[in-house]
Request: fold
Amino acid sequence: MCNDLREGLGNAAVSLRDMVPEAATVIAAAGGCRCRQVRYLCRAAPVAVTLCYCRDCQSWSGGPCGNFAIIPADAMTLTGATKVFTAPCDSGRIMHREFCPSCGSPLFARTPHLLAVAVASFDDPSPFRPTMAIWMDRAPTWVLLPDDVARYPGNPPLSSGA
Amino acid sequence: MSTLIGGCRCGSIRYECLAEPSAVSFCYCRDCQKASGGPFCNYAVVPAEAVRVTQGQTRSHTVQAASGSAVKREFCADCGSPLFASNGHVFVLAVGCLDDARTISPTIAIWLDSAQPWAPVPSNVECFAQNPPLTLGGD
Reply:
């Protein structure tokens, strides 16, 4: 795990692994965009898999929530060029969102401390079961959630320490 | 009749839709997963002629969907927001890009055959293993 991420996560990362050990089972996973112009290899287990209902993630996904695997930034190898869009997200923090300029597939969201990978961009998303739902106070009234995830009205301890 | 208004995250593209959705779908096909970055796309099915882009221009990417039909997906080239998709029969808006998406609740869940094993599925909606009959799609 990179130092930035370790500092940002603090004890939260440890407690998340304790809470949801299945989040740590994927060791290496390849992925990329729909048109295959951008490909990546992720060589670390995610520390969390989020469903984020903030407005910024809604316009990013086109639906009620973004869906991300949080991984150490230095565990990602990328080929191909992404387009980066930078703007404050609901927390006010600056977020860099990366997508494929050719097919539009959402790929990554970055802060200085976190790298979040769009779960569906993995070639096989099936191991990336969500572990937490965040920014629930921005969720639509008909909110859709798995039963077994931790829920937070805004940011979780994971990122509030970042 | 209310007007649906929406646009992309960066504000480059704005649109309005002068018709109520005939259905609001959650589509779990693999192509919709790639397009949203998550377990499904969330679309409002509307008549194409009811939609007017009032500002900006989309970029499009056309793919062969799981159904075999060509699906044109339109997004903002500046911020990446997914906005529209169409296949010649059905035109849809990405619900998350509406200015007020909170009350546009889903009515159908489709392509559940290809859903991720952990994907949440809305309750009280009609469910289909693959495509619904086109009549449900507002054609």
In short: Chain A is about 15% helix and 30% strand.
